Fold this sequence. Notes:
The chain is an alpha+beta fold. The protein has helices at 23-28, 55-92; strands at 6-13, 16-19, 31-38, 43-47, 50-51. It contains two helices and five strands.
Amino acid sequence: MKDMVVGCASGKIDGKVVLDLNKEEDNFGEADLPIAIIPRTNEIVLLQMDGNMTKDELREAIGMSKKAALYISNLQKEALLAKYKGQESEKEGE
């Protein structure tokens, strides 16, 4: 396994590029762009767009998603380390 895959969504609502759309924004916005990224390599492994964006808006949305993915990746790693931190010492004590 290279790294954990992190997913997030950006989109366009009322002419503005936004991150983390809710259901109504997704359903009634101008565009929805789910994306999955491997944070270590910054590689996009999933990219789908419903709706319309200009090239500049698409670049902005991808940039926002990549930045958010790095943040989410750190949260995931911290949560996993916190959850399984004690288990290593428990195994040694057996």
